[in-house]
Amino acid sequence: MATSRRAGRLSLLSSALGYLALVPPGLVLFVLVAGATVLIPAWVGLPLVLAVLALLRSYTGLYRTRAARILGTPVERPYRPVDGRGWFGRLRRVAGDPATWRDIAWLPLNATVGLALRVFPVALLLGGVGALAFPLYWPALPPTGEPNWIGVVPVTDQAGANLVPLQGVVLLLLWWALSPWLARADALLARWLLAPTERSRLTSRVRELAQTRAETIDTQAAELRRIERDLHDGVQARLVALGMNLGMAEEVLASDPAAAKDLLAEAQRATSSALSELREVVRGIHPPVLADRGVDGAVRALALRSPLPTQVEMDIGGGRLPPPVESAAYFAVAEALTNVIKHSDASRAWVRLRKAGGRLTIVVGDDGKGGADPEGGTGLRGIQRRLASFDGTFEIASPVGGPTIVTMELPCESSSPRTSPSSGTA
Amino acid sequence: MRIVIAEDLALLRDGLIRLLQAHDFEVVAAVDNGPSLLRALTVHRPDVAVVDVRLPPSFTDEGLRAAIEARERVPGLPVLVLSQYVEPLYARELLSDRGGGVGYLLKDRVSNVGQFVDAVHRVAAGGTAMDPEVISQLLARHTRNEPLRQLTPREREVLGLMAEGRSNAAIAGRLFITEKAVSKHTNNIFSKLALPPSEDDNRRVLAVLAYLEA
User: Fold this and answer.
1) A314 interfaces chain B, CB cutoff of 8 Å
2) Over the stretch B93-114, which tens digit does the pLDDT of each residue have?
3) Closest by alpha carbon to B84, among A288, A298, A273, A227?
4) Domain identity same for B93 and B160
5) Contact flag A279-B85 (C-beta cutoff 8 Å)
6) Candidate from B85, B140, B141 with C-beta closest to A288
7) Confidence at residue A7, expressed as pLDDT on a 0 to 100 scale
8) How many other CB atoms are there within 10 angstroms of residue A67's CB atom?
9) A268 and B89 in contact by Cβ < 8 A?
10) B143 neighbourhood in chain A, CB within 8 Å
11) Are B106 and B52 in contact (CB under 8 A)?
């Protein structure tokens, strides 16, 4: 898909030169890993190994970036989270991660095969240019009496030297034809060892799913408890009171019609309150306007209720999204707008929904004071959890001074069989 | 007065029929789904219709859509829409043809029979009956609106009742003040909100609602 963004030959050349220069530091890292490992019994080895390995991960990260650029597809980081306790625990996590060993194994490979793959095109180009210019500098060469072998041609006089550029042309053509393939081979080599293996991809996917599933279950249980409490304290209590009022009215109906009338009026008010509380509960579960109009109408209705002028832009096609996606998208927008209203001091807000490539992108922005902290509010964390159970993503950009822009993305297929944890499958 | 009723729950439909017949309405049709409602409205052309928002077959806002479509075919056809919840978005859609003869009330309002029948009559006469809940939601949007903040509490009260579609006489009755006092308040409101003054009740409501929805 990103073919157009693949690097051209000249940028491949400069990249090859740059990454050639990076080979020696890689060898130093290799030595350091070995050295630090030897030092582990001497205690200082522990933090040293961890530091060197962290450095190694950034170092291989550079090559992942390069491989991704050459191949036109992302090359993900394969590492498991380092969540061990203490230095020893962390070392065990890192050492137990096959990605660490693949990194280390890649270092010598990079210094040999990788190096060759990068030197070769540079040599072809330099040789070609040198051969083209040969007739110009041949006279300046010190005469040795021996024929001057340039490639396959022995040069003894200016006429012979004038033939050398032909060779240069051949070399340059070779460079032109081969350099993309060499770079590709180089990148494939890097991806082979530095990208997650299918196994590690699945392992991390399973871990992620287990975590989001647990969170989803917790959230659902909490939701149900909240609904139960709302019904119990609100509607049920009101209906009990209503029944009592009606009973009392019945008792006094004959003896004191005026009192009965008051009780009936009160009963009527109780039904109104019960209904209004019930409406709030329903709105929290599944807003009727969402059921009626889908996410398009529901978000517009939200904007219409918002005390801030809120501009809505909708580009999600005509049809309805799958109901779980609609619901998640609606509550995400609602929560984000609530945050804008409560915390941002903004004078206006905007909501943009876009469906493209099977993914729904939701952007909520304001012109407020910024500084929103996704860890700070339960609301934002709630959105994050809700979206995570859909393989959705949540990003917030909120520099102090504003503006705040919340970007959320979720797949439109509610139960997609994807196995890659992030966007852009190859 | 000839009336069409659309409500899919038999219990409520029978209740509405009974209630309205007791108040001298002639129920020419009582239907329970969107397509029959549209047919009933265009065929019978009643003086007024009472319509539940959510109707089969889709169980979404079918009733509202049928009402709006019927008003496109029969301009000014008076329709009172009932719903378990109110949504300012739907109020806006109902009002958008600016023809008057529109009502949008919570279903619970039916339990106050006198006021409900009054609202049906008002809509039938080409007036407006907006639920107080719609108005308070619209007002809540304008907490930072400068002109609205300049209104006195009494003027805000009058504004709310006016937006519901009540006449000066009705507002005076509700607030226990004279009609003259009400018209003084309304004049103040219109000048503070910079709205063109209007003696016509209906145009007045539409202007206020348009202001609140802006």
Assistant:
1) no
2) 998 888 889 999 999 899 889 9
3) A288
4) no
5) yes
6) B85
7) 59
8) 23
9) no
10) 307
11) no
Backbone φ and ψ of B11, nearest 5°:
-55, -50
Residue B156 · residue B163 · CB < 8 Å: no
Domain identity same for B140 and B105: no
Same domain? For B26 and B123 the reply is yes
Out of A272, A297, A307, the one facing B108 most closely (by C-beta) is A272
CA of A404, closest CA in chain B: separation in Å? 21
Indicate yes or no: CB of A304 within 8 angstroms of CB of B84: no
**Do you find a cis peptide bond into A421, omega within 30 degrees of 0?**
no
Return the pLDDT at A376. 67
Domain span at residue B193 reads 135-213
Contact by Cβ (8 Å): A414, A324: yes
Cβ–Cβ contact B88 with A under 8 A: yes
**Residue among A76, A95, A175 at smallest CA distance from A426:** A76
Query: Can you give the pLDDT at residue B148?
Result: 84
Given the cut 0.85, state whether the ipTM is greater than it. no
**CA angle at residue A99 from A97 to A104, to 5 degrees?**
110
Q: At what angle do helices A158-194 and A45-71 cross, to 10 degrees?
A: 120
Q: Any idea which fold A293-411 has?
A: Heat Shock Protein 90 (3.30.565)
What domain count does chain B have?
Answer: 2
pLDDT value at residue A151: 67
Residues B11 and B49 in one domain: yes
Residue B106's pLDDT is 93
Query: B149 CB near a chain A CB, below 8 Å?
Result: no
Q: What does the alpha-carbon distance between residue B167 and residue B175 come to, in Å, rounded to a whole number? A: 12
The span from the CA of A278 to the CA of A236, in Å, is 10
Q: Which of A304, A320, A326, A367 to mutate to test binding with chain B, by most B CBs within 10 Å of its CB? A: A304
CATH of the domain at B183: 1.10.10.10
Low-confidence ranges of chain A (pLDDT < 50): 1-5, 414-426
Do residue B49 and residue B10 come from a single domain?
yes
pLDDT tens for chain B, residues 1 to 214: 999 999 999 999 999 999 999 999 999 999 999 999 999 999 999 999 999 999 999 888 999 999 999 999 999 899 999 998 889 889 989 988 888 899 999 998 998 899 999 999 999 999 999 999 899 888 888 777 778 888 899 999 999 999 999 988 999 999 999 999 999 999 899 888 888 877 777 788 888 888 887 7
- Which SS3 state, helix, strand or coil, does residue B190 take? helix
